[in-house]
UniProtKB/TrEMBL annotation:
<dbReference type="Pfam" id="PF05641">
    <property type="entry name" value="Agenet"/>
</dbReference>
<dbReference type="InterPro" id="IPR016197">
    <property type="entry name" value="Chromo-like_dom_sf"/>
</dbReference>
<dbReference type="InterPro" id="IPR014002">
    <property type="entry name" value="Agenet_dom_plant"/>
</dbReference>
<protein>
    <recommendedName>
        <fullName>Agenet domain-containing protein</fullName>
    </recommendedName>
</protein>
<feature type="domain" description="Agenet">
    <location>
        <begin position="112"/>
        <end position="172"/>
    </location>
</feature>
<dbReference type="InterPro" id="IPR008395">
    <property type="entry name" value="Agenet-like_dom"/>
</dbReference>
Length: 188
């Protein structure tokens, strides 16, 4: 079975990072080139949109998380992660969504206000950090707990609601999907 990825040269995408201090963060990028390595791994040459001082780099579509205990122990199960996904889809809040959408475009729509338990991506330091809202601290601010080590940095931060977007998972097979949000036994 041939694996067909939805990326081509010139596309915009988001790339995940395992660098210390940025574990699990997603960076906006543009695909400049692609290749298959001698070992048969697919790589893309990326230009970082918000980090113009960073050199372009080759990134493997799948990589082992060097912080994952399974990877440290030399086990291959569960230690390989997807490192590139398409640009985040347009998203709208409730009544602000247009009545008609282009047929081929993926759209995310959030119906309610943010609540405890919601999974979000927080835009900070010119990248996106995935976490879960653990407290509504004020009208415009929430407290977010980010993914624990080895998937993320594991800290808690105050985030302005205007800097949040819904967290979406992406896979080659399923495309964009909504993660479950479990607050008070409910999910969306």
């Amino acid at each position: 079975m041939d694996l067909i990825l939805p990326f081509k040269i010139g596309d915009f995408a988001e790339a995940k990072c395992f660098d210390e201090g940025f574990k699990g963060a997603w960076f906006r990028s543009k695909i400049k080139d692609m290749r298959v390595t001698e070992s048969g791994h697919l790589e893309y040459y990326l230009e970082y949109i918000d980090y113009t001082e960073e050199a372009n780099e080759w990134i493997g579509v799948f990589q082992k998380n060097p912080f994952n205990p399974a990877c440290l122990e030399g086990k291959s199960n569960g230690s390989t992660e997807i490192m590139l996904r398409p640009s985040f889809p347009r998203w709208y809040r409730g009544q602000h969504a247009p009545k008609h959408f282009p047929k081929s475009e993926v759209i995310a729509r959030v119906h309610d206000a943010w609540k405890v338990g919601d999974w979000v991506d927080w835009h900070n330091k010119d990248c996106y950090w995935t976490g879960q809202i653990i407290e509504l601290t004020s009208k415009n601010v929430v407290e977010v707990k980010f993914l624990d080590h080895p998937m993320g940095e594991g800290q808690q931060c105050l985030a302005k609601k205007k800097d949040l977007r819904p967290a979406l998972d992406w896979s080659i097979i399923k495309g964009w999907t909504v993660p479950l949000s479990t607050a008070k036994g409910k999910s969306w």
